[in-house]
């Protein structure tokens, strides 16, 4: 993958996650909901997809969605914490 613009993030609300699927390989950002709070607890990008900015795109998409929904945002995932500083 040479062009990051082709990365499409899918929100799978029923499974509480955001997913990027490239040629059958999945990267994801998972979250828990409780009332008006959201906790982003896990980011995973398989080795074949690392170094392409996919985790950042997942996190930025997830955070934008959470803000638009008015959630109080928490992160128990250390990667996501970097974006909340």
Describe it for me?
The protein has 85 residues and is an alpha+beta fold. The chain is 26% helix and 36% strand. The chain contains 2 helices and 5 strands. Strands 1-2-3-4-5 form a 5-stranded mixed β-sheet. Strand 1 and strand 2 form a beta hairpin.
Write a compact overview of the structure shown.
With 85 residues, this protein is of the alpha+beta class.
- Proportion of residues in β-strands: 35-45%
Report the span from N to C terminus. 30 Å
Average pLDDT rating? 93
Order of helices and strands: EEEEHEH
Which structural class should the secondary elements be placed in? alpha+beta
Helices and strands, with pairings:
Elements: E1 10-12, E2 17-22, E3 25-34, E4 37-44, H1 54-68, E5 72-75, H2 78-84
Parallel strand pairs: 4-5
Antiparallel strand pairs: 1-2, 2-3, 3-4
